Every structure is written in C-alpha cells, then in structure tokens.
Amino acid sequence: MSGDFEPACRRMEWLDPFYKQVWEKAFADGIPISGTFELTPRCNFNCKMCYVHLKAEDIPKHGKELSAREWLRIAEEAKAAGTTWLCVTGGEPLLHPEFAEIWQGLAQMGFFLTLQTNASLISGKVVELLERYPPRQVKITLYGSDDEVYKAVCGVENGFTRVNDGIHTLMSMGIPVELVSTIVRQNADDVEKMAFYAYRHRLPWASTGSIKPSLRGADTDAAAVRVQEKLEEAKRAEIQRRIREKRFVDPNRKPAT
Ligand code: SF4
C-alpha cells in the first residue's frame, strides 16, 4: 500500500506494542483490520457542532438507513476480508430500529466491538443486551459536567443526569468506559470540570476542538461554535499537566468540615 495514507495505530502512542505490530502487519498486507459502522443519523440530542444528526423525517432526503440484514451482510464481507475490531456508532446507534439484532449478530460473529454512544439510553433492554453481548469498551461523548451545559451544547433537558446514569450503569457492569469531549464555545469554560469528572471516575478522557462542517444536511454552523484552536490547545495542555502531576482540584470543592 502506498501514498500518504497512514494507519491510525501510528497516532496511538498508548497502544500496546503487541497490537501496534498486529496493526502494522495488517497495514502492510492491505487487511482492513478495523472498521466503523455508522448505523444511523438519528439522535435524541441535537448538539450544536454535530455534523451527522438528522431528524427521522429528513433521512429519506439524504439516503436511507440500512436494515439489520444489510448491515450483517456487510459484516460478513468485512469479516472475510480480515476485519477484527469494529466500532458501532451513529448518530446515536441505540436508536437504529434494529439495533439489538445488529449488535447480537456482530457479537456472534466474533468482532471485538466498541460501542460509541452519548450514554443517555443505557437502561432496560439495552442493559440486558450489553450484559449478554458485552462490548470490549464503550466510548462516550461527554459534553459537559452539568445539565445546564448539556442544555447549551446538546439542546436537551437533564442531559448530564441521563449521561451520568448511563456511565455509572456501564461501570457497574464492569464494561470499560472511555470519555471523549468535543470542545465548543458553549462548553469551553467547563473543560476543567469535565476533565475532573473523568479523573474522579478514573476514566480515560480525550478532548478535541476539531469541528467538521456537515456534508449531508445536518444543520451545523461550524464557524459559530468553534473555539480558537490555540486557546483550546493551551487549556488541554494545562489540564493534562495537572492530571499528570495529580494536582487536580475540583474548582467547586467545598472545604471539609
Ligand atoms: S450526541 Fe453525537 S450524534 Fe447526537 S447530536 Fe450530539 S454529536 Fe450528534
């Protein structure tokens, strides 16, 4: 394989050397060892920076959702080509009308599954399904440290409360959780609290200021929400330094009595 393309593993400093070797070998042999299934553009949140989310009634204007049968057929092809790691995402993937069937099918095929979700729908039947077919990890988008910030970023009530419940449910099930935050104007002042939330829960956390414009009809105004890259970089570096040095303090911490 030639050209400018670089495998993702070269940007993952944290990746175990064994897996790095596996990925490098797959790259050299042209094997699509990992992939992403973006099941649906549906979402129960309406984030200001989202370039994916479409209302259900707008989906037919831009294409169509694939059925469970279609996804599983693609999965069979991917498996035959050597795909091992699969990330299942959306929109909010749990809102695909046949999510349970797709998830069960992929798990039974033996993929190493990552679920990427906003974590607000981790309850009831979803919990039963994930208990039966656990993912290797769940990647959760964390957009604030309280309901007010979630309202500003995602346009929903009780957003943080629901996400926090989802995170705790997954942790109590012993499923590894990783947090990812996109930093926009509406949550830029909340970065430290989000980092502290991750630190307090002993969860890996990554942040990004990268905002992509939508190519498929989501009404994102990237320029209106993007924070200055340099400001974001400086904040991120400072937070990482404090986490490294374990000097992180909750800015709202009350004195002990
Ligand atoms: S939670 Fe994710 S998919 Fe849903 S609107 Fe927000 S950014 Fe988009």
Give a quick rundown of the structure.
This protein is α/β, with parallel strands linked by helices and 257 residues long. It contains ten helices and six strands.
SSE layout and pairing:
Blueprint: H1 17-29, E1 34-38, H2 59-62, H3 68-81, E2 85-89, H4 99-108, E3 112-117, H5 124-132, E4 137-141, H6 147-154, H7 159-172, E5 177-182, H8 191-200, E6 205-208, H9 222-225, H10 229-244
Parallel strand pairs: 1-2, 2-3, 3-4, 4-5, 5-6
Helix pairs in contact: 3-4, 8-10
Bound molecules: iron/sulfur cluster.
Iron/sulfur cluster binds at residues 43, 45-47, 50, 52-53, 90-92, 118, 141, 154.
Task: Tell me what the structure shows.
With 257 residues, this protein is α/β, with parallel strands linked by helices. The protein has one domain (32-226): Alpha-Beta Barrel (TIM Barrel), CATH 3.20.20.70. It contains ten helices and six strands. It has helices spanning 17-29, 59-62, 68-81, 99-108, 124-132, 147-154, 159-172, 191-200, 222-225, 229-244, and strands spanning 34-38, 85-89, 112-117, 137-141, 177-182, 205-208. The chain has a six-stranded parallel beta sheet with strand order 1-2-3-4-5-6, covered by helices on one side. The protein is globular and about 45 Å long. The termini are far apart. The structure holds iron/sulfur cluster. The site of iron/sulfur cluster (SF4) has 13 residues, from loops.
